[in-house]
Amino acid sequence: METKSNKPQLFKPGEGGRPKGIKNKITREIQAKVEWVLELLDETVEEDLKKMKPPDRIRLWADLQEYIRPKLQRVNLDVGTEDKIITKITFELVDSSGKSLDE
After folding, report:
1. Is 18 left (phi over 0), alpha (psi -120 to 50) or beta?
2. Could you tell me which residues are beta bridge partners of residue 100?
3. Are the C-beta atoms of 52 and 60 separated by less than 8 Å?
4. Which site in 17, 30, 41, 55 is 20 to 30 Å from 76, CA atoms measured?
């Protein structure tokens, strides 16, 4: 037995409710609240960053990198036969001008 609703039909069969790309009301409300909080934090974020300890600043910097730069893939290094053993690997830190930071 088929029951019919007393509500008027708003859409024709096969039509959706929202057009593609339009966010629902709850998503828009949450986004507006998040933007409001971010605006409040914008006023103090510079001071807060300056108050952070260096290890915390470095951790934050590393965590934020993934949002603007692609992640590097892990690479396995095969250096050849077993008779060639690497005993030391040295890294040199340089600034953007090419000057060594290790000096």
Report:
1. beta
2. 94
3. yes
4. 55
